[in-house]
Amino acid sequence: PQRIYYLSLEFYMGRTLQNTMVNLGLQNACDEAIYQLGLDLEELEEIEEDAGLGNGGLGRLAACFLDSMATLGLAAYGYGIRYEFGIFNQKIVDGWQVEEADDWLRYGNPWEKARPEYMLPVQFYGRVEHTPDGVKWIDTQVVLAMPYDTPVPGYKNNTVNTMRLWSAKAPNDFNLQEFNVGDYIEAVLDRNLAENISRVLYPNDNFFEGKELRLKQEYFVVAATLQDIIRRFKSSKFGCRDPVRTCFETFPDKVAIQLNDTHPALSIPELMRILVDVEKVDWDKAWEITKRTCAYTNHTVLPEALERWPVSMFEKLLPRHLEIIYALNQMHLDRVAALYPGDIDRLRRMSVIEEGDCKRINMAHLCVIGSHAVNGVARIHSDIVKNSVFKDFYELEPEKFQNKTNGITPRRWLLLCNPGLADVIAEKIGEGFITDLSQLKKLLDFINNETFIRDVAKVKQENKLKFAAYLEEQYKVKVNPSSMFDVQVKRIHEYKRQLLNCLHAITLYNRIRSNPSKSFVPRTIMIGGKAAPGYHMAKMIIKLITSIGEVINNDPYVGDKLKVIFLENYRVSLAEKVIPAADLSQQISTAGTEASGTGNMKFMVNGALTIGTMDGANVEMAEEAGEENLFIFGMRVEDVEALDRQGYNAREYYERLPELRQAIDQIHSGFFSPRDPGCFRDVVNMLMHHDRFKVFADYEAYIKCQGQVDQLFMDPREWTKKVIRNIACSGKFSSDRTITEYAREIWGVEPSDTKIPPPNLPRD
What positions are modified (N6-(pyridoxal phosphate)lysine) (predicted)? Predict the structure, then answer.
């Protein structure tokens, strides 16, 4: 069959035990067996470490995709890096984030199997020699790539795919070559330098940090993976390791490589290098093969997130790849120049090489010219990709550009994390929805069914009680379980506008203080997420949230009406607990900045209502459920663009809106930081003078919309009916649907629902 290779520098897998039991249909049997041994399965599950090999959405998407590809019977492999240290553990000390290394392998990892027999060499540095027999890359340093395989089971179809993660190993002669005469001890200690490649995940989400070690990681995963792909392509018969196929004509019919963002973009020049330099394929033929094989998914439009590597770094680390990139760029620019004679500015805009004080390689441009398909991850994002980010490229080859709206796996994000809700649904419509989430539409017939309304509300209340107990046990905080659980969990970033949430919390607080006898809809505002260690503003935002909580939660006038809680160390396993308990999901990024979002989908399928802007997949969620069934507020993309042209003036909103002014003055004066009154001056200064994400511009609409949330929450029956409508309309957001679209429209394969006979049954 055609094999699919999903290349990603991140796989945010979380825990594996329960997921394996669910997909193998063994959960009840295991539960019972463990219970008979006098143990509690849930207690056991809590012992497992999360595999935190990702930052956020991009890494978690890769994990959902693996689950769906296996469930859809695709011959798919996930390829990445086996980081010794994943995303840091977050501690809150004194209200500030403190990072701790995530030593997730400390007690071993029972799910992985080392495969030393498939170890492969990866080369760095060296120089290029042009000889009569072709090009040679010589005098390189070698690092070995050791594969570790983790099984990826499909849902009850007896299919098990593989995630193969590479670990860096120094060769035994490392630094002991002829030129190193003296220090044997020093040389052995230097093995660490090679093995550092797979030491640690870079903790940046939506931000490019041009470090040499990161470029090494990117080439390391690409070089090892492509050797593996080509070895597998050449052994035509399963289990046979002798190279049989030597003609690469059929390569794109047998191999599809999906690049998860630009991080594995080096696949393009590396495949060219192997085809041209090693396999002696003609250049133009090699380029055709490469383009037909590779496809690129764009994940962000934020300029600071785009990978632009200094040419000087390439020259040193990957000299042959630099030559190949120059040649590909020349070919590309010749084509553009022929189509648009005299348009020099267009050549500058479209070049893979950015000229300037420091010449850089634009990896996104490399991906676009080297792929047969380029996709965004939600309709609005794909439109922005076509009309602004890659506008020139879209004009050149419109057929290349597609949309593939993200999805989430209903196995982990409904069955596993919310069995109560899954049971209530299955009772009404059967179990077919687990592998065909569009069947949730059948729930529309039960929107006015009193028992169903009651059952859905009861499951939510149980989930809230359970989460409240967890918060009390873990963090010693008491919350009111009948209050509205208002949740915003995601990486801390200015564009995600946790600050807007803060301003709402302060506004509610001020309203309670100025009118303590008035009846308020009680809320527990929970905000969670990690800040990149070097992102000063994000760390200040965390300190602000914890400081606001300190004041509000200890004010006797407020009592049970309002609590602000920062959820420490937000990660996959915590998401599985908090999402089923949420009443309100906050998805409030500035329109045009959140490519898709996937947390929004998890909340929707788990029975929370969404307050959000028309951004990312929120647009399609509103389309599916009806805009009146979400709390949509604020500027649309067009409004943001208009405001940019006009010039955004924060002060104007500050002067005009007394509640906003009061909140900002309190933050500024040290009301929330009495021991350090100047603590938040950077935050206020940013909001007032250089806020790229226009927090104040949406404040008024947001506060008003939150008022409508309060109104509905006071009518539990109407609230629950809206919840049911949302769940019933969430079927589109299954990663099974997403992967089916990738398979048919990019990879050229058909998903299958065939259940392979189990190994204990004889095959025909």
Answer: 602
60, 291, 320, 602: the catalytic one is 602
Q: Is residue 429 part of a domain?
A: no
* pLDDT, tens digit (0-9, with 9 covering 90-100), for 516-541: 889 999 999 999 999 999 999 999 99
496 is catalytic: yes
Which of 63-77, 316-330, 471-485 is the least confident region? Answer: 471-485
Give 613-633 pLDDT, tens digit per residue: 999 999 999 999 999 999 999
Could you confirm whether 299 is annotated as catalytic?
A: yes
Is the separation of the CB atoms in 419 and 459 below 8 Å?
no
Q: Does 219 lie in the same domain as 113?
A: yes
**Predicted confidence (pLDDT) at residue 240 exceeds the cutoff of 60:** no
User: For this structure, is 694 an active site residue?
Assistant: no
Residue identified by tokens 């190279």 is 243
Q: 234: domain range? A: 3-407+741-746
Catalytic residue among 15, 60, 191, 299: 299
Task: Compute the distance between CA of residue 355 and CA of residue 344 in angstroms, rounded to an integer.
Answer: 13
Q: In whole angstroms, what is the distance from residue 13 CA to residue 94 CA?
A: 30
The residue from 191, 386, 491, 725 that is catalytic is: 491
Same domain, 518 and 392: no
Please tell me the distance from the alpha carbon of residue 64 to that of residue 53, in angstroms, as a whole number: 14
Active site residue 536: no
**508/523 Cα distance (integer angstroms):** 10
**How large is the average pLDDT for residues 339-359?**
96
| 238 pLDDT tier (thresholds 50, 70, 90) | very low
Q: Are residues 152 and 264 in the same domain?
A: yes
3-state secondary structure 402-471: EECCCCECHHHHHHHCCHHHHHHHHHHHCCHHHCCHHHHHHHHHHCCCHHHHHHHHHHHHHHHHHHHHHH
Task: Determine whether 493 is an active site residue.
Answer: no
Active-site option among 216, 332, 360, 496: 496
Catalytic residue among 71, 409, 546, 598: 598
Return the amino acid letter for 268.
I
- The yes-or-no answer on residue 359 being catalytic is no
